[in-house]
Amino acid sequence: MNKRPILSKEKIPLSDAAMKPERRDFFRKTAVYSVSALTAATIMAPVKIDAEAHQEKKGDPAILEEKKWGTSFGYPVTHNLYGQPSPYEYHNTRRNTKLLSSGNYYASIAMSPIHESMGIITPNGLFFSRSHGGTAEIDPNEHRLMIHGMMEKPIVLTMDELKRYPNVSRIHFIECPANGGPEWRGPQFPSIQFAKGMMSCAEWTGVYIKDILKDLGLKKEAKWMLAEGVDNSHMGRTIPIDKVLDDAMIVWGQNGEALRPEQGYPIRLLVPGWEGNLCVKWLGRLEFAAEPFYAKEETAKYTALKPSGKAIQHFYANEVNSVITSPCPDKPWRSLKKGEIVEIEGLAWSGMGTIEGVDISFDGGKNWVEASLKGLVLPKAWTRFSLIYTYEGKPLLLSSRARDDAGHIQPTVKHEREVMGVESVYHRNGIFTWEVTEKGEVNNVQVLS
Amino acid sequence: MFKSYHNILLSSVIAAAMTTTVVAGDTGGTRTYANGKNVIDGGATYPVKNGRTAAYFVNETVHKSTFNKGRIPTEKEVAAWNIDVMPDGTGLPEGEGSVEDGDELYEEKCASCHFDFGTGGAGYPALQKGNAYEGQKSLTNQRHSPDDDGPVRVFGTYWPRASTLWWYIKTGMPHPAPMSLSDDEVYALVAYIISINELTIDGQELEDEYVLNREKLLKLVMPNKDGFVPNIDGPDGLENTRAYFNDFSHYGNGTRCMTNCFEGEPKLARISGSGISDYEPPISTKRELPPKKEGADTPGKTAYETSCAVCHATDAMGAPEVGNKKAWHAVLKKGIENVYHHAIDGINGMPPRGGTSLPDNEIKQIVDYMVKISK
C-alpha cells in the first residue's frame, strides 16, 4: 500500500480523498486535511516538528502497525448488557482521603474527578458521594413516602404512585457546602479533585413538591418542612416553605436512569442550588410545621461560625463560585510547547441563580479579562467558561471570578476572610488561583492581596 | 382543592411576575417572588413566563391540576415514622434515665468510638471539652496559626437546643445499630452527656444519681442558645431569614474590578509541605488497563473468549466444540504439535490464527486452554 506521510503541510482537497475507493485511505486523508486546516489556522512550528520526527521513524506505529481491534472480533452485543466504561478509563474514578472521614468510610465523602469532567453533566458513576451512615440499598417495593404535619390531608405514596405525578427534568448541580472547606486557612490539596470535587451536576427527573401539595390543603401556619431519610443516619433537614413552593423537587431519575444508591435510590429531595446536605437522600418523610426542627445536621454541623462568635444557621444556597479545570494540578500543562494555542477552561456555578459571566486573571487577580461562556447556561447548574490563550511558557497566576444574575460576585480570599474569618468550615467561594510554573506544573495557591 | 394562604402564594409564584425586580441579563430570573417578597436565600427565582422557566418549556396544565395520588396514612403509621423531636418537646416521649446508668451504657455502646468521657478521637467527634459555659466563650477564637486555640464546637458549647441530642441519639446512635436504644436508655445517655459537659438544669449540676426525664430536659437552656443567625424561631422566623440572606454583606460579595485591583505584587499563600495528598486511589490521568489481579486469568481464557469462542463455542460452524470430549478426542489423535500447527496455519474453514494476529505462544496458550476444558 502506498503510505503517505500523515502530517504533510500540503492540503489535500476532500474530493481527492473521497474518490479513493479504499476506506482506510479515505479516513487517513480526511485526517490529513483537517490537520492541515488546523495548522494553517493556528501556527506551523510545533506540528512541523512532530511531522519531521515521524518522517525519521517512517511514521507513527499507532498508524503503521495493525492493531488487534482492527483484525479480530470485538466482544459481542451480549457482553456487558449494562454498559461499562473502557477499561482504559479506569483512573477516571471517585477518590477518598482518610482525612475527610468521620473515623470510618460510612460517614465520609468520595470526591468527583472534576478534572476529567466534560460538559456540564457528571456520569452517574462519577457523581460525588456523601453519606452519614453508609449507602443504603433500599428495596423500592418496601419503600414509602409519607407527607404529613400541618395539612388537611396527609398522604403516603408507594414509589409507583409517586411516579404517576407528571414529571419534570432539570439540570442542577449538587455541591457539599464543605467543598473547599479544608482550605479556609490556606491551600491544602495539590489536586482539583480534592480541592473542589465535592460537587457534580446531573439532569434530575422528578416532581415538584408544590404539585403534590395542591391536593393536601397545607395550613397557613405551616412554614417549615422537615425532610428525613430512612437510612442508617435518618438524616433530617428543615426547609423553609418558600423553597418548597418554588423549585424543590422529589427526584427519582438521574441522567435518564434511576438514581444510583449513592444518590438516594429510590428517591431524594432536590433543593436546587442549596447545600447538598439539604437534598436528603433515601427520602421517606416530609413533615410540615410552624417552627423549625433543629435537626442534628443543622446545629452540630452545616453552620458557619463567624469571627463574632455567632454562626450562620440555615445557610441554604451555595454561593457563586468557579474554578479553572484546565489547566489544574491533576491535568497540568507540562507537555505544552511555547507558542501553542490552548483553551483555558473551567466550571462556574451559583446556587443563587444563573451564571452571567466569568473573568480570568493571569496575574493573581490584579487585572482581569472576560472569558466566554459556552454551552447551556442554566439556573443553578454547572456552566462552562472558556478563553483561548497562546501559551508562552511564562509563570502565571491563573484565577477565575464568576458572577450570577442575582448580583453575586465571587469575593477575593481576603474579603471573604474579613467577613467569615477562617473557622466557618462551610460555604467557601473565594476566588480560586492556580500557579502555573515555567515548566507547566500547576500548584494550588491563594492570593491574599 | 383546599384554599389557603399557600395556594395563593403558589399560584402567584407560577403566574408571570408582574411587579418584580428583574435581574440583570435575560435569564428570566427575578430576585422577588410574585408576592413581592425577596427570594428567601438572597438569590433568584425563575417564574414561568410564556410557557417557559429559564430555558425549560413547561406544561402549564400540570400546575393547574390536582392528581390525588396515594392514601391517607393510619395514625399508627404516622406514629411509627414520626420520630423527630422538636425544641418545644413535640415528639419527645416520656421516660427517664440516670447519669449513672448513662455512664454504664456509654462505656458499653459509645466509648469504643467517642473514647472515655466523650473526649473523641480518630475522626470521631468529641462529646465534651470541659465546662460548657466556659467553652462557649471560645467561639470567637480563630485559628490563624496552628498554635492558636480554636473555637470549641461540642454539644455543650455550641448546640443551641438540647432536643437535638435526644433526637440524634435515638435515631442515629450507636452508629452501627441506630434505633436500637429504648427511650429510657436515651434519657440515661443524654443525662450522662449533659453531666460531662458540666451543664446545669434549674441551677442543679447532674451528679451520678441525677435522674433525667422529659420535663427536666425541656428546662435545659443551652449556653449557645442565642449563638446563631438569622433568628429562625417564632412568627418572624421566615422574614428574619429572608432579610438576612438578602443582605449580601452578611456572607460577603465581591466587586467586578478589572484593572489594578490591588497594590504591588500578589501576596501568595502556598501549600505547606506536600499538603494533604494521601488519596485513595492515587491521582493519575493515564489511559491504561488496570493492573491484572493475580490468579484472575487462566492463560488463554480471555483470548479464547474474544477471538475463538465465536466459532468454537458450538459446533454450528463445523469447528470442534469446546467442552465436547468426543470432538476433542478426535482432534488430539493428531498429536498436540499438529493441533498447534493447524491453529497457527489454519485448517479446513479455519483461517490462520483463527483470524487473529496473535503470536504463536499465545495461540498455543489458547489451544491448551481449549484442550483443558474439553477433557
Task: Describe, in plain words, how this protein is organized in 3D.
Chain A has helices at 14-19, 23-41, 45-56, 61-64, 68-71, 159-162, 192-196, 209-213, 241-244, 413-420, and strands at residues 96-97, 108-110, 129-131, 144-149, 155-158, 168-175, 199-208, 224-229, 236-240, 249-254, 257-258, 268-270, 283-289, 304-305, 311-312, 321-326, 341-349, 355-361, 369-370, 372-374, 383-390, 396-404, 432-436, 442-447. With 449 residues, chain A is of the alpha+beta class. Chain A folds into three domains: 14-70, no CATH class; 98-303, Oxidoreductase, molybdopterin-binding domain (Sulfite Oxidase, Chain A, domain 2, Alpha-Beta Complex); 321-445, Immunoglobulin-like, CATH 2.60.40.650. In chain A, strand 18 and strand 19 (369-370) form a beta hairpin. Chain A is globular. The model of chain A is unreliable at 1-47 (pLDDT under 50). Chain B folds into three domains: 1-70, no CATH class; 79-217, Cytochrome c-like domain (Cytochrome Bc1 Complex, Chain D, domain 2, Orthogonal Bundle); 301-372, Cytochrome Bc1 Complex, Chain D, domain 2 (Orthogonal Bundle), CATH 1.10.760.10. Chain B contains 15 helices and nine strands. Chain B has helices at 5-14, 60-64, 75-81, 99-109, 111-114, 132-136, 155-158, 163-172, 183-196, 214-217, 237-245, 301-312, 325-332, 336-345, 360-372, and strands at 52-53, 56-57, 96-98, 200-201, 204-205, 211-213, 228-229, 268-270, 279-280. In chain B, the strands form three sheets. A two-stranded antiparallel ribbon of chain B has the order 1-2. A two-stranded antiparallel sheet of chain B has the order 3-6. In chain B, a hairpin with a 2-residue loop joins strand 1 and strand 2. Mean pLDDT of chain B is 90; it is low at 1-20. Classes of the chains: A alpha+beta (449), B mainly alpha (375). Chains A and B meet through strand 1, strand 5, helix 8, strand 8 and helix 9 of A and helix 1, helix 3, helix 8, strand 7 and helix 11 of B. Strand 24 (442-447) of chain A pairs antiparallel with strand 8 (268-270) of chain B, so a sheet runs across the interface.
